[in-house]
Structures are given as structure tokens and as C-alpha cells.
Design brief:
It contains seven helices and eleven strands. The strands form three sheets. The protein has a six-stranded mixed sheet with strand order 1-5-6-4-3-2, covered by helices on one side. A three-stranded antiparallel sheet has the order 9-10-11. A two-stranded antiparallel ribbon has the order 7-8. The radius of gyration is 20 Å and the shape is globular. The two termini are 38 Å apart.
Length: 290
């Protein structure tokens, strides 16, 4: 048996063991090619002629089969978080040039964080900046708790959906290479992620105008991201410290209340009510529309 055949059997076994949802490929209609890279292609498609989703295909070789297996393991365990792109399942296309299984993700309607900030800078407020920063920090804290570090986040792999943050492609670092992060390096990688959070906070600060009545809180916000950008990793704050401080800057619209985000009626997208408390976000109610 070839190495590729063996890996493909591992992929099929994992899909079956984890009861990953399978969708009939004939129910999808490809709308456009979004991204065409060396080993992967990303498409926007319509499911059942009414629901827009993302399909991701992989070139058929041993290396990319490893990537598919690891990406499945990664997303399958963490996508319940409201600020992480939702993995919906797999579909199968019989094309010898690609791995038969394609991954199905929720679509996003706001583009990347970079494009969103550029197009809406004059419309965004202090509250928007705090909300986005808090959502990013909460998602990073959640991933760290799952043992996922060295995320490599930037303005192009964070997306906007219905004016809320969605992290994506955070798997394209150590985890997709099949490497195990050694315990002695875990703290370093976490502080590396804190640095990227600080950089993202700085980018948002540079792109959003403010009213005079938030001058005081802005100084505190600036101090947080500057501390995150400290050259000495051990001098950077813990991610939970960032989360708790950002929560304290929220105004009455979200401070101490449920942050309710309702998606359109879409069988692929989660609908939830999330509470920010002292230990981070938890899901009060989840409903799937299958």
C-alpha cells in the first residue's frame, strides 16, 4: 500500500470515528474561486441554492493529506467559539487531481479585518474597537486553553461577519506541520500570540477616530497594547489580563450584559448568546439549524 493510500485511509477513518457531517457534493454550486495557492483552493459556493458557504480543496499528495488530517483535528475541536470560523463538515468530489474530501466552512460577509477597517474607519467608534479587541483576545485565550499556540494572527486572516470578529487560518503553523509544542516553549509561544494581539489592537487604534469623552480610556488601551509589544516576552501581560482589562472599558451596552449576536437563518451558522465574565466567554444557548 502506498503512503498516500495509507494516509487517505487515515483521513477516512478520522471522519468516520468523529462523526463529521458529510454533505452531498451535488447540492453545492460553485460561485467563485476566492483563493488559489500552491496546494489549496478556496471557493465560495451555494448549498441547496440558498446558503452560502466556503469550500476548501487540497492537492492530492502525501503532504497535503497530512494537512487535511491535522486541519480537521484542529477545527473540529474548537469551532464552537463564536469568534472562530465555524467548520461545518466535509463533502466529496471525485477529481483525481485533488484529495476527494473538501472541507466546508461558514461564509463571512464582511471581508478581512484589514479591508473592514479601511472601508469603515469613519463609521467605527471606541465601542467597536473595544468589542473587536475583546473578541480577538477572548478567542486567543480560548485557543490557548485548548493547547493551540503560535497562531500567527494578522489583519488578513481575521475576518468580519455581521460586524463581529472571526478568526481563521490560525492552524497554519506548528500544528499543521504535525509538530508538538514542547512544554518549555509553550509560554514563549503564548507571549508571541500576546504580541500579535497588541499589534492588532494598535492597528485598530490607528484606524478608528474617537470622541473627546474617551480620552482617559484610550490612554489605558494604548498602555495595554504597548505592554503587549514589549521586546522582552516575559514582560508582556498574560492574555487573560488583556481580556479582563478590555472588559472593564466596555460601555453599558455590553459591560455586565449579554453580548447577543444573531446570525441570519442559516443551517451552517451558530446562533448564540454570550456572556463575558471573569473567566472569559461561555455559551448560554446554542442552536443549530440543520
Amino acid at each position: 500500500m502506498s503512503a498516500i493510500s495509507n494516509k487517505f485511509q487515515q483521513l477516512q477513518k478520522y471522519i468516520n470515528e468523529k462523526n463529521i457531517t458529510f454533505y452531498d457534493y451535488t447540492r453545492f454550486r460553485i460561485v467563485e474561486l476566492i483563493k488559489n495557492e500552491e496546494f489549496t483552493r478556496v471557493y465560495r459556493a451555494v448549498f441547496k441554492n440558498k446558503i452560502t458557504v466556503i469550500l476548501k480543496s487540497f492537492e492530492n499528495n502525501d503532504l497535503t493529506i497530512n494537512e487535511v488530517i491535522n486541519e480537521l483535528k484542529l477545527y473540529h475541536g474548537v469551532d464552537i467559539h463564536p469568534n472562530i470560523i465555524r467548520f461545518n463538515g466535509v463533502t466529496r468530489q471525485e477529481d483525481p487531481s485533488i484529495i476527494p474530501y473538501m472541507l466546508v466552512y461558514e461564509d463571512v460577509n464582511g471581508g478581512t479585518l484589514r479591508s473592514y477597517l479601511h472601508e469603515n474607519s469613519q463609521l467605527l467608534s471606541w465601542n467597536d474597537m473595544i468589542k473587536f479587541s475583546l473578541q480577538i483576545a477572548n478567542a486567543v485565550s480560548y485557543l490557548h486553553a485548548k493547547g493551540i499556540v503560535n497562531l500567527g494572527l494578522h489583519l488578513e486572516n481575521i475576518f468580519m461577519h455581521s460586524n463581529n470578529i472571526k478568526l481563521a487560518d490560525y492552524g497554519l503553523s506548528n500544528r499543521l506541520k504535525g509538530q508538538t509544542v514542547k512544554y518549555q516553549y509553550l509560554g514563549f509561544y503564548k507571549k508571541s500570540d500576546v504580541y500579535t494581539v497588541g499589534n492588532l489592537m494598535q492597528e485598530m487604534y490607528k484606524n478608528i477616530p474617537f470622541a473627546e469623552n474617551v480620552v482617559g480610556p484610550i490612554a489605558k488601551y494604548i498602555k495595554i497594547y504597548k505592554d503587549c509589544l514589549c521586546n522582552e516576552p516575559n514582560s508582556r501581560p498574560e492574555i487573560q489580563f488583556i481580556v479582563s482589562n478590555l472588559k472593564s472599558y466596555c460601555n453599558q451596552n455590553i459591560n455586565g450584559h449579554d453580548l447577543v449576536i444573531t446570525h441570519p437563518q442559516n443551517p451552517f451558522i451558530i446562533q448564540y448568546s454570550m456572556v463575558y465574565n471573569s473567566v472569559g466567554p461561555f455559551i448560554r444557548h446554542i442552536s443549530f439549524f440543520k
